[in-house]
Design goal:
Number of strands: 2
Order of helices and strands: HHHHHHEE
Helix content: over 70%
């Protein structure tokens, strides 16, 4: 087995989470729940939502832990000592990501990770915000991925 570049490895991981997220989004859009009671009483829709939210989180992890540093390394940026916010700001300047969107996605994810007893309307609004954020994250990854295609990776084109 040949060693892959960090960028190729990051893309491999992100591609898999992205594909499953896109599939879950399509399934959700085909039969969305109208409210929390409908969602919680339909096991099929609940499983779709679970997959959607899980892959939303996994794609965020893959981008933050792997693709951010791999992209900066491929661009020969001296990022190793930079905090995450500086890495994101640099990628925003280079046209890869919008920092405000990134921070909003993280906040939505953190809100989902800590469920509290709230009124059903509030809980369902958080779910709807997460679904919208998942769509936005998937679109942002597609744009990021397209921007990487001309970058060399071990002498190869990506994509």
């Amino acid at each position: 087995m040949t060693a892959q570049s960090p960028l190729a490895t990051a893309l491999w991981e992100a591609d898999r989470h992205h594909a499953t997220l896109e599939s879950a989004l399509q399934d959700w859009l085909a039969a969305p729940a109208a409210n929390l009671l409908e969602l919680e009483t339909n096991p099929v829709t609940l499983r779709i939502l679970d997959q959607l939210l899980f892959r939303f989180s996994k794609l965020q992890d893959a981008l933050g832990l792997r693709l951010v540093p791999a992209t900066l390394a491929a661009l020969s940026e001296p990022f190793e000592e930079w905090p995450m916010i500086d890495r994101l700001n640099r990628l925003e300047k280079l046209g890869f990501i919008n920092v405000d969107d990134w921070l909003r996605w993280r906040e939505i994810r953190n809100r989902l990770a800590h469920e509290y007893p709230e009124p059903p309307e509030t809980r369902f609004a958080a779910i709807e915000a997460a679904i919208a954020a998942a769509r936005d994250l998937a679109a942002a990854y597609r744009a990021w991925r397209a921007k990487l295609k001309p970058l060399p990776s071990s002498g190869q084109n990506l994509g």
